[in-house]
Structures are given as C-alpha cells and as structure tokens.
Design a protein that fits this description.
By secondary structure, this protein is mainly alpha-helical. Helix content is 75%, strand content 0%. It contains 6 helices and no strands.
Length: 120
C-alpha cells in the first residue's frame, strides 16, 4: 500500500504541474483496484495502462446503466426472459457491458493464473 500511495502522490504532483486539473475519481479508483488486486494476485497495474483504463470505463458504463434503487429484476427475476425479447437501449448497453466485462475479467484471470503457474 505504501508503494501505491507513493505512486499516487507522484502522479498527482506530475498531473498538477502539467494541467492543474485532476480527476480524483480516476486517481482513487486505480489505487483502490491496485491495492485489492495486489492482495489477490500479487500484481499491480500502471496508471497509464490502456487495458485497465478501458476496463474501468466499462465498469463505470455498467454502473451508469444500473438503477441504484433496484429494478424489476430484483423482485421478479424471471422477467429477464421478457426483457430480452423486448430490449431497450439501456438493456442492450448493459448486456453488452456485462459480456465485455466477463471477457476482460477472464483474460485478466487467465494471465494471472499463467503468471502464478510460471513461478510455482
């Protein structure tokens, strides 16, 4: 965590020198992800890594299409079959985001598994 904090402060300082504008959401999101992922898999991601940036955008997009107050699927799970027959733009976007995220997570987990197998 100390290494992540040092990287966070260094990147924050560099960004402030360059633009004077900082998107704190992105800074903290990557740091939290790095801390959790380093505990799980022993691997950290670079802040400039395009793959991780795209993954975070997909997660953010998925969260934007999900109702925080719950939706009909919580009360009536079988209704997902009807919703797939009459898809809305939000439903399609959410489904596409979930499929894409599932593929990304599988790729990340496969690469982490290969990394762990290499060092056994």
């Amino acid at each position: 965590m100390e290494e992540e904090l040092a990287d966070l402060l260094l990147d924050l300082d560099q960004t402030l020198k360059e633009t004077n504008i900082v998107d704190m959401h992105q800074f903290f999101t990557i740091s939290v992800l790095n801390i959790i992922w380093s505990m799980i898999a022993g691997v950290r991601f670079s802040r400039k890594d395009e793959k991780i940036q795209q993954l975070l955008k997909k997660v953010s997009s998925l969260m934007a299409t999900t109702s925080l107050g719950g939706n009909i699927l919580l009360g009536f799970p079988f209704s997902r079959h009807f919703l797939s027959i009459f898809p809305t733009a939000t439903w399609k976007a959410r489904t596409n985001a979930l499929v894409s995220l599932r593929q990304d997570f599988k790729r990340h987990l496969d690469s982490a598994y290969a990394y762990m197998q290499e060092y056994r």
